[in-house]
Amino acid sequence: MLKQKLPIIIAINTVVLVFLLLFVFYTFFSKSDSVYYVDNSKLFDGFRMTKEMKKEGEKQFNSKKATLDSLYLEIQREDLSGQTKEILMQEFVAKREEFDSFNKVFAQEESNKIWTRINSYTQQFSKDKNYKLIIGSSNQGDVLYADKSVDVTAELLQYVNKKYEGL
To answer: Its domain of life (predicted)?
Structure first.
């Protein structure tokens, strides 16, 4: 009786083993598709908020530079007394330091604001797409190689710009 049931037991075990192997392969390969990358530079530069902040920064930069330039031209006048020139020179040095500080602080603060917004939108994007991991690449060695099929830069850029616009 055991000899008669042995082929049935072997067949059942074989079918269970095949299903188990198929399940393991499916699980392994489906998870590998959840890792993607983006080009951080393209994402940052293409983000509408970056472009807006850059325009605003250029306006402030140009305004402060115009003030410096006019002060410099004033210092160059030959009809100024030594004392007036000295006062203007001190004012120029102070304005120049303020200008340099503005450039450093503005760029850093605005970059931080932009990346905070991009990161927030990227989290939403990842949840919407059911992505487990998005790696940012700055083309400086962070990601040595990535197949173009896992590059979601354009898709994420479109998403963050729509979110930024309130769409």
So the answer is: Bacteria
